[in-house]
Amino acid sequence: MSAEAVAAFVGAGVNFFALLFVAGQVAVANRQLRNAQATTDVDIRRRKRQATIDYFANTVEYRNRLAKGLPDPRDAREVERTSRRALAQGEKSKRFRSIIAYLDFYEALAVAVAGDVYDLEVLNAVDGGTFRDISRSYQPFFRAVRTSSARNSWYVELEWLGEQIVKLRGEHNYYELLARRDERTQSLRLTR
To answer: Which residues cross the membrane (predicted)?
Structure first.
């Protein structure tokens, strides 16, 4: 074998091993990137959950002020009576404005959940029943205020959120929800 052939063979071998080394480095970098992405995703979910709890805790007094003078949303009959009186009194009445302010708050929160800003499962755990009851009890009011084209989308997200909570609560019993929570908590611990 000539010296040129040996040099070409050695050069091809060196290139082959260099290529294997580079491929190995790319695989390691790819794995590190996937791990970093998974860690980031877990952190984003944790922050979203925490933001949901913080928002809810920071608005307790405001929600109580909005609900003052309005019937408990679990009492659908009283909600309907109050809504009918407010609609009869007109949009400038204090009762009508109170209902609108109350529903607007919950609609804004529903928009944030639908937009993936806040966490549905945490919201459900904190006060899902209230969202469900509001979306059910205020149905007649929703239909009444949507009669004009300018208002045809009012409280759509709030209705959606109520439906999501019903689905979430209907699909799982309490013990299954606790098990899912524990699994999520365990996975958060493992990724730290």
So the answer is: 6-28
**Token pair in block for residue 37:** 């992405």
SS3 93: coil
- Cβ density class 139-169: b for 16+ within 10 Å, e for less: bebbeebeeeeeeeebbebbbebbebbbebe
Helix 76-89 crosses helix 120-137 at what angle (to 10 degrees)? 60
CA angle 138, 142, 146 (to 5 degrees): 170
- Alpha carbons 130 and 56: distance in angstroms, whole number: 12
Asked if pLDDT for residue 11 goes beyond 70, the answer is: yes
pLDDT at 33: 77
Residue type (1 letter), 162: G
- DSSP element (H, E) containing 68: none
Q: What would the two tokens of residue 91 be?
A: 């949009």
Give the residue ranges of DSSP H helices in 59-155: 60-67, 76-89, 94-114, 120-137, 139-145
Angle at 172 between CA 166 and CA 184, to 5 degrees: 110
- Cα distance between residue 183 and residue 177, in whole Å: 10
Please classify residue 183 by burial: count the beta carbons closer than 10 Å to its beta carbon, then call 0-12 exposed, 13-18 middle and 19+ buried: exposed
Supply the pTM of this predicted model.
Answer: 0.72
**Are the CB atoms for 111 and 157 separated by under 8 Å?**
yes
Distance between CA atoms of 2 and 145, rounded to whole angstroms? Answer: 93
